Amino acid sequence: MTVIDKISINKQVEGLYNFLSQNKEFEKDYKTAFFSQNSKMAVSHLLFSSNKIIESYLKSADHLSDLEVSQIKNFKNNIFGIFEIKKILKDEFELFNLLNEQTYFVKPAKKLHEYRNYSTKQFLAARLVLIEKTYYLLEILGYFPSTKSSDAYRYAVSLQIQSPELLYKDNSQKLIELENFVKESSIKFQEFFKKDEIITTSNKIDALISCFNDYLDENSQIEEDDIKKLIKKPKDYKYFKLKKQNNNFFESLTQGYSLNNQVYDIGLINDNELGLFVIPFYGTFKKIFNTENYQNIKNYQDCIRYFFENSQIPPSIILKIYDKNKSKFIKIIQKTLTTEKNIEELLQKNKPEFYKNKKFSSATVLYNSKTFDNFTKFINEPIKKSFENIGRNELCPCASGKKYKKCCGN
After folding, report:
1. Among candidate residues 144, 176, 206, the one where a domain is terminated
2. What pLDDT score does 295 carry?
3. Which stretches within 323-369 are classed as H helix?
4. 356: alpha, beta or left, given left = phi > 0 and alpha = psi -120 to 50?
5. CB atoms < 10 A from the CB of 43, how many?
6. Is residue 208 part of a domain?
7. Alpha-carbon distances of 268 from 277, 325, 379, rounded to whole Å
8. Closest C-alpha among 137, 115, 119 to residue 128
9. Number of domains in the chain
10. Distance in angstroms (rounded) separating the CA atoms of residues 181 and 384
11. Do 107 and 207 reside in the same domain of the chain?
């Protein structure tokens, strides 16, 4: 397939966008995406992340030829990524996707000279499509100049955390790597803690995770009494909104849970399928269903909504609590959420992404992401001054999650 003798991919993309903007069925979702902060990216994600809109377009577009229908069906299997331009060849690009760590040889959907503003070492936020065993550049949604490499890596890591399936999409070897890591870390978690979950406080959790990382990495033995000192019950169980961390991604990684001045309970939970989860107010959520006077727990209704609406909390963790007292659990949930849906219906409605893909925990993703490793190298230089006052047993400022003595202080 070439740009000259085959139907233009751009024409089909334009037709899809026009259909989406004018279709009543998707009007509400389209307006939400269109008026969001990153409109172009949001509308693209709405269009290409679900097959529903493409299928609806194909049913209504009688004017399309068989070839056009075949091309558009291929759009369902698109690949979104943050691509570093490695080479610009005679009639194609060599691109490396930071999200799934794969290299692609990609032909342009336009004539190559129309991409003359792009050069090697730049980064594209783009979408590819595979047609007749050849990758084509479906659309470019943004770019980072070579001088902003750290921003490209920062954005890629944030996407990996939000949508862990991007790390292994079109990379079966990475999926195997993640699954093997989860098996190994699950065994280590049981060895280290002698149980599959721990509840402590926000001012202890970072040190506790650091100790476990040492054991996971090097099998470092830690005195049981030292571990017990880091497992502390909160004075009371209550829920409140945490200080937002979204505006400073690096700060939230390096400072962990100390960003919030108030002390609160936090759970460290191992899921045998998805990995290690760190979940604020896990103890409070559990307390709601194992105490008689649950109404006395401050903001308990907001806590329930937080657990059901948070896209980073998997259904398995909620089901784990549900299984211990099913009738009481569902009664409180239905009353709080004003619904008659059963637990499975609620979870599938509120957490559909977990039923579509294997959504590993953020900790699992970061531990196995080479993009995250490279991101920490980018940011080491600006924070060198902060190393001067770091104690050897404190968390390393490079965001590795390890102690300084085991990381950059070595």
Report:
1. 144
2. 95
3. 326-337, 343-350, 352-356, 362-367
4. alpha
5. 20
6. yes
7. 6, 21, 27
8. 137
9. 2
10. 31
11. no
Give, as one character, the DSSP assignment of residue 134: E
Segments forming the whole domain that contains residue 20: 9-144
Task: Please indicate, yes or no, whether residues 347 and 282 belong to a single structural domain of this protein.
Answer: yes
Residue corresponding to tokens 């239905």: 334
Q: Does residue 176 sit in the same domain as residue 251?
A: yes
Q: Rounded to an integer, what distance in angstroms lies between the CA atom of residue 217 and that of residue 400?
A: 12
Asked whether residue 384 is domain-assigned, the answer is no
* Burial grade of 377 (CB within 10 A; 0-12, 13-18, 19 or more): exposed
Which amino acid is located at 278 in the chain? V
What gap in Å lies between CA 248 and CA 233, rounded to an integer?
A: 29
The last residue of a domain, from among 144, 177, 207: 144
Residue 407, domain member (yes or no): no
Q: Are strands 134-144 and 102-107 parallel, antiparallel or unpaired?
A: parallel
117: CATH: 2.40.50.140
Cα gap 333→106, rounded to integer Å: 49
Same domain, 210 and 341: yes
SS3 72: helix
Residue 234 lies in a domain: yes
pLDDT tens digit sequence for 345-365: 999 999 998 998 889 998 899
Phi, psi for residue 82 in degrees, rounded to 5: -105, 105
**Count of residues in the chain:** 410
Secondary structure (3-state) at 107: strand
Measured distance CA(83)–CA(95) in Å, rounded: 6
Residues 136 and 231 placed together within one structural domain of the fold? no
From edge to edge, which strands make up the β-sheet containing 275-280?
197-201, 265-271, 275-280
Q: DSSP readout, 288-326?
A: HHS-TTGGGSBTHHHHHHHHHH-TTS-HHHHHHHHTTSH
Digit-coded pLDDT (tens) for 280-310: 999 999 999 999 999 999 999 999 999 999 9
Which residues are paired to 84 by β-bridges?
Answer: 96, 123
Both tokens of 291, joined, read: 């105490």
Q: What is the pTM of this model?
A: 0.81
Could you identify the residue written with the tokens 């980073």?
Answer: 312
Question: Does the structure show a pLDDT above 70 at 161?
Answer: yes
Gap between the Cα atoms of 348 and 252, Å rounded: 29
